[in-house]
């Protein structure tokens, strides 16, 4: 009996990138991709990482070309957001209107949850081969789209 792929047909929201230096990465990517980065302030985020609740001071920025969206996260040791490179492609973010069901399916298929508590309707999952996938639902998609709209307006 074939296993149903819970990722089949999901829309790509963004490509996630991790960097060592936010200002340097933004400058390089702005030139390369011709984008304007939105909201790169540090914020405290209460999260569940590797199954443990933590509060992290994260610096995240968003940009859009109108065709592709990007999320840039400054590296934080001992989290999923680490890199030895100046800029690294990190994850692909996918949207589902039933994100809770997709998350349950991924967990049932053996994907390791890196971000979010068991049962959360969104999070980061690592497949057995190492691919890192973020799943988001309606609320987080609306939040992200507001940044992508701002980024497109800033470039126009």
Report mean pLDDT, rounded to a whole number.
Answer: 93
What is the CATH architecture term? Roll
What fraction of the residues are assigned to beta strands by DSSP?
A: 35-45%
Instruction: Assign the CATH class.
Output: Alpha Beta
Instruction: Please name the CATH topology.
Output: 2,3-Dihydroxybiphenyl 1,2-Dioxygenase, domain 1
Shape: globular
Return the structural class: alpha+beta
Largest sheet: 8 strands, mixed
Output the radius of gyration: 16 Å
Name its key features:
156 residues, alpha+beta, 2,3-Dihydroxybiphenyl 1,2-Dioxygenase, domain 1, 8-stranded mixed beta sheet, 3 helices, 8 strands, 37% strand, globular
Descriptive account of the structure:
- This protein is an alpha+beta fold and 156 residues long.
- It has one domain: 2,3-Dihydroxybiphenyl 1,2-Dioxygenase, domain 1 (Roll).
- It is 26% helix and 37% strand.
- The protein has helices at 22-33, 99-108, 138-155, and strands spanning 11-19, 42-49, 52-64, 69-74, 87-95, 112-115, 123-126, 132-136.
- It has an eight-stranded mixed sheet.
- A hairpin with a 2-residue loop joins strand 2 and strand 3.
